[in-house]
Amino acid sequence: MVLGMKVWLLRRSSSFLDDTCFFRSNKRVADKDSRQGQRYDDAEIRTYVERVHARHDEPLQQAFDAAERAGMPQIQVAPNEGQLLEVLSAMVDAKRVVEVGTLAGYSAVRLARGMKPGGKIFSLEFEEKHAAVAREAIAKANLDVDVEVMVGDARALLPSLEQHGPFDLVFVDADKESYPEYGAWARKNLRPGGILVGDNAYLFGNLTKESERAERMRAFHEEAAGEMVSVCLPTPDGMLVAVKR
Fold first, then answer.
1. Tens digits of per-residue pLDDT, 215-228?
2. What is the DSSP letter of 209?
3. Is 83 in a helix, a strand, or coil?
4. For the whole model, what pTM was predicted?
């Protein structure tokens, strides 16, 4: 009887720990629900962490606002995502970076701020007007990294950069249909330990839909996962990060 009671209590105790949060000294240290996907961020929390971790100084704010001032689409990465680019750039001690999709230059400035002085970014932009705005924003940021904004179809420009490789980081934020080609180029031209980053990896909520565009984005995911060490971070529209083995 005593043994049976002990077994029952042990099972009940195990069930309690499985079905509830784990506490130490009445303080939560782990949470089953969040491990299963429940999110605890809200507007107040997001505002706080952005203010603490991704605050803009004047040059960053100037670069962030450049698209709006020029009447361009305001589709640059958000401040937290920009800070992530800066962190990733610093993590790999980046000296040579390729960016596919310059827009108004904010992400290039972020990448540059994580790099060692004397580094080089090749930033590829399809629209001449966007490139001109970006060059001005980058010049005003007073960077100690050389940022070369190149104009044209990235698929045609990328082969010309191979002589400058291997690269430490490739950031892709351009036409979504071409992500598989950009990913393949990155895997070929990154150094071992180099990082591929792809924005809009959820494809604006359409990643799992039946369309050619979604199939192309899924190919980008699956090829990165098959050949690299990868994860898709749950930013508002997903950001794929993959390391070359």
1. 999 999 999 999 99
2. S
3. helix
4. 0.86
